[in-house]
Structure formats: structure tokens, C-alpha cells
Design a protein that fits this description.
This protein is an alpha+beta fold. It folds into three domains: 142 residues, Beta Barrel (Elongation Factor Tu (Ef-tu), domain 3); 45 residues; 125 residues, no CATH class. It has eight helices and 13 strands. The strands form two sheets. It has a six-stranded antiparallel β-barrel with strand order 1-8-12-10-9-13. A four-stranded antiparallel β-sheet has the order 5-4-2-7. A hairpin with a 2-residue loop joins strand 9 and strand 10. Helix 2 packs antiparallel against helix 7 and helix 3 packs antiparallel against helix 6. The longest helix has 33 residues. The radius of gyration is 52 Å and the shape is rod-shaped.
């Protein structure tokens, strides 16, 4: 009888302990989640037709690897034109900065002196000696004209007597015409000298002399600071244009920003890539985490807390992780939680960043987050 009582008491105690344990400690301390990683969407700022694609889905890439190439169209021609403009502007700036050479200054002074001498000559008018020379030249021309007239008369008489040829007559006529032209030119020259210099000629000569004088003074003083600054600004603007075109041409090569694996590729050779639109996605190496949702009843977790991760693909392994984010905003349980009863509850999103297992785990895998890592060993 007594042993039976003891057995009954032990059974009751065991049952009570089981009930107490089930009430105060859950069977396991885990929540479900999904493995995630950084997915980098890559595109080009310029857009254009795809000239070549160098990768396929699943390929591993390193930073700065060329993923695809866009056609340049006329960008290379624009760059060549911009570089030529830059060279011209830089040469002009260098000239302004260095100033004029000594021979250029001397040349400007000589021109100024030459134009001033011409002005002085116009103001003074013709000298008597010049008028005398012009008269003498007119007398010579008139004498040649009389000789040509007499020669023509003799040739005509000879022609009537059939002693001269038609060619002789033509030559005599031509000589007379030339002599008449020479007399007219010498007469005009003498008239101009006797009339003196016209006022409009003096005004034009005075303006040219003043302009040459100013140019000589500026050449001696060098370029103004504002001219040098303007030349430098023009050179800087041309350099910026070249840099902008070089950047656009560089954008024709779509490069990998990080190391990782090509996750998706939505473009082929000959396709049109829109400016700023992603054309492929890279699953970046490095950071990987599990996104999970903690119910209010378990909101005693903290950032920095060590947890364990398990997945169905590796049932015998657990992967160390750390809670790095806890949302401050409650939300309803997402639809991928398994039971309808759990889906109506409010939860808080957490992120458990993996410290290991990045070579085995894949984004999209279902995973369990063990808030008490020791429980994952059971």
C-alpha cells in the first residue's frame, strides 16, 4: 500500500512539474525568418544601345569589373572637339599669363611710329620739291605723247604709200594710247599735290595712329588682370567640358561596384538601356542577415545579443549571429508566418546579422533564429 502511495505522489509531482515548465518556459525559444543579403542594382547614367555583355547570371565579379559596354555613338567625336578647344584655351591663357614677347612689343612700337609719321606728313601737306618733281614728270609724259602722235602720223602716211604694215599701224596706235594714259596719271598726281591733303584723310590717319599708340602702350604694360582672369575662366570651362564628356564615356562601361555574384541579368546585346535604370543585380559578398519578427511577448531581446541560426538545408549545423536591429514600430505579422493564429498578432522586425555561414547560406532560405543559442543544440 505504501509503495503505491509513493508512486502516485511521484507521478503527481512529475505532472505538476511538466505543467509548470510548459507554462513558464516554451518548448523552444526560436522565431522563423528569411535569409537576406545586399542586392546591388547596377545601371548607367547615360543609357544607350548595348554593344557587348561580358557576364552571365551566376558569374562571380570583382569590384570595377566591366559588366557590359554601351555604344559611344558620337561621344568620341565630341570629346576630340572639346579637347581641341581645351588646347586652344590653355594656349591663350598661357599667352596672357606670360605676357607679350620683347619682339612683339618692339613691333607694336614700330607700327605706332610709322603711322604717326604718315599722319605728320599728311598734316604738313606736300613739299614744294614734290610738286616740282610731279611737274617734271608731267612734262616728260607730255613730250612722250607728242612723240607718239608724230609717230602715228608718219605710220599712217607710210601705210597710204603701202610702205608700212597693218601691224606697224596697230603698234603706233597702242603707243599713243599708253602715252595719253601716262599724261592723265601725271596730271592727276600733280593736281592732288597742289590741292593738298583732304580732311577725311587726316581724320582716318589720326585714328589709325591713335589706335597703334594705344596698342603699343598696352603691349609695353602687359595684359590686364581681368583679361588674364577671363582667359583662365575660359580654359577652366573647356577643361570641365572635357571632364564631363570623359565621365559620360566612362559611364558607357558599366562596372561592378562591389564583389559578388550576378543575381539577375535582364539585358542582352542590341537592347536599349535606359539612363538611370538598373539592368542587372549583384548579390554582394560580405554582409548577410536573417529578417525575422519577434512577438510582443518576447520583446526582451537587445541589440548586440548573440543568437544562433539554423536552416533545413544544414540540420546538424548552427551559425552564430548577432541582433543588430530591432524595429521601434510594431506591425502585423507578415503572411509568410506559418499559422493563422500567429499572423494576426503584432510583432517587431529584427535583423540578425550572420557572423559565419556566408559560404553555405543563400538569400531566400527559410531560417530559425534561436534567441537562446543553447537551445539550438537540442
Amino acid at each position: 500500500m505504501f509503495p503505491r502511495i509513493i508512486i502516485a505522489l511521484l507521478a503527481v509531482a512529475a505532472l505538476a512539474g511538466l505543467v509548470f515548465y510548459s507554462q513558464w518556459r516554451p518548448v523552444d525559444d526560436r522565431i522563423s525568418g528569411i535569409v537576406e543579403a545586399d542586392e546591388i542594382r547596377v545601371g548607367s547614367r547615360v543609357g544607350g544601345r548595348v554593344q557587348a555583355v561580358h557576364v552571365e547570371e551566376g558569374d562571380r565579379v570583382a569590384p570595377c569589373d566591366v559588366l557590359l559596354q554601351l555604344e559611344p555613338f558620337d561621344l568620341q567625336a565630341q570629346l576630340a572637339q572639346a579637347q581641341a578647344e581645351l588646347a586652344a584655351r590653355q594656349a591663350e591663357f598661357a599667352k596672357y599669363k606670360a605676357g607679350l614677347r620683347p619682339e612683339e612689343v618692339s613691333q607694336a612700337k614700330a607700327r605706332s611710329q610709322q603711322l604717326q609719321a604718315k599722319l605728320d606728313q599728311l598734316i604738313a601737306g606736300p613739299r614744294p620739291q614734290e610738286i616740282d618733281v610731279a611737274k617734271a614728270q608731267l612734262n616728260v609724259a607730255q613730250a612722250q605723247l607728242r612723240f607718239a602722235e608724230e609717230s602715228l602720223a608718219r605710220v599712217r602716211q607710210a601705210r597710204e604709200a603701202r610702205a608700212a604694215t597693218p601691224q606697224d599701224l596697230d603698234q603706233a596706235v597702242a603707243a599713243l594710247q599708253a602715252a595719253q594714259g601716262e599724261v592723265a596719271a601725271r596730271q592727276e598726281e600733280l593736281s592732288l599735290l597742289q590741292a593738298g591733303t583732304r580732311e577725311e584723310e587726316i581724320r582716318a590717319a589720326r585714328a589709325a595712329a591713335a589706335e597703334a599708340q594705344l596698342a603699343a602702350e598696352l603691349a609695353e604694360q602687359g595684359f590686364r588682370e581681368e583679361d588674364i582672369a577671363s582667359a583662365q575662366a575660359a580654359a577652366d570651362a573647356a577643361e570641365a567640358s572635357v571632364a564631363a564628356l570623359q565621365a559620360r564615356i566612362e559611364e558607357l562601361q558599366v562596372r561592378a561596384p562591389v564583389a559578388g555574384v550576378i543575381e539577375s541579368l535582364d539585358i542582352r546585346k542590341g537592347d536599349m538601356a535606359s539612363a538611370g535604370a538598373p539592368v542587372l543585380a549583384i548579390l554582394a559578398d560580405g554582409r548577410m542577415w536573417v529578417r525575422a519578427y519577434v512577438p510582443e511577448t518576447r520583446l526582451n531581446v537587445k541589440t548586440g545579443q548573440q543568437v544562433a541560426i539554423t536552416v533545413d538545408s544544414y540540420p546538424q549545423e548552427r551559425f552564430a549571429a548577432e541582433i543588430t536591429y530591432i524595429s521601434r514600430q510594431a506591425e502585423f505579422t507578415p503572411s509568410n508566418v506559418q499559422t493563422p493564429e500567429e499572423r494576426v498578432k503584432q510583432v517587431f522586425r529584427i535583423k540578425a546579422t550572420l557572423a559565419e555561414g556566408r559560404d553555405k547560406l543563400r538569400p531566400g532560405m527559410p531560417a530559425d533564429v534561436w534567441l537562446t543559442p543553447e537551445d539550438a543544440q537540442r
